[in-house]
Design goal:
single chain; about 210 residues; 7 strands
């Protein structure tokens, strides 16, 4: 499984958690999937058109676990482009699908520790590199993003932290192939996140 350090020009611009409106579309809104997990399957407009493909069910299941009681992590945002023309010369396929998944610790105070964020990033990258090494048509990019955790006590400076953006891509000659490779990408990502979450929970329980 291919893993990259992905650069983003907005990575240093702090975004609030919970956020109030979408950066690219003001009609988008924040949903607390931990409090209302039923909204995962009804509120993500980007996925609706593609629900016939198993990849979307795999993604829903990933979000349900990620924001559930058995995870040390949560998500506050995701996006999906669908199958579009390939823009990467590195991957010689006609089409690509791409999107993002934002990751942070459920224990919000941990997100104010750069050490914990780097531990999370490195753990996910190492786990992904060991999973499905022969798979060439899916990739994950990791970007550390600035965040302000507005529900934590203290001053704005004390609320300053980071979250992890996992960008994802899959490629194929046609739409079914793209979505099959996307499903494999999501399955690999699920395994990696579950491994890292288990390690985090074990570490916190030992403290």
């Amino acid at each position: 499984m291919k893993v990259y350090e992905h650069t983003d020009p907005d990575s240093l611009l702090p975004r609030a958690h919970p956020w109030t409106d979408g950066q690219s579309d003001a009609s988008h809104r924040y949903y607390d999937f931990r409090a209302q997990p039923e909204l995962i399957r009804s509120s993500l407009e980007d996925l609706e058109e593609w629900r016939a493909y198993p990849a979307i069910e795999t993604f829903y299941q990933l979000l349900e676990w990620l924001n559930g009681p058995n995870s040390a992590l949560e998500s506050n945002d995701c996006a999906f482009s669908g199958a579009t023309a390939n823009t990467s010369a590195e991957f010689p396929k006609r089409l690509q699908a791409s999107g993002r998944l934002m990751i942070l610790y459920q224990d919000l105070a941990l997100n104010t520790s750069p050490e914990q964020i780097h531990r999370l990033t490195n753990g996910i990258a190492h786990a992904l590199e060991a999973i499905d090494p022969g798979f060439e048509w899916g990739a994950i990019g990791a970007t550390i993003m600035a965040i302000r955790l507005t529900t934590l006590p203290g001053s704005p400076e004390q609320q300053r932290g980071q979250q992890l953006m996992l960008s994802f891509w899959a490629w194929g000659e046609d739409e079914p192939e793209v979505m099959t490779n996307l499903d494999r990408t999501f399955r690999n990502l699920t395994v990696a996140l579950q491994q890292v979450s288990d390690e985090i929970r074990d570490s916190l329980n030992r403290q």
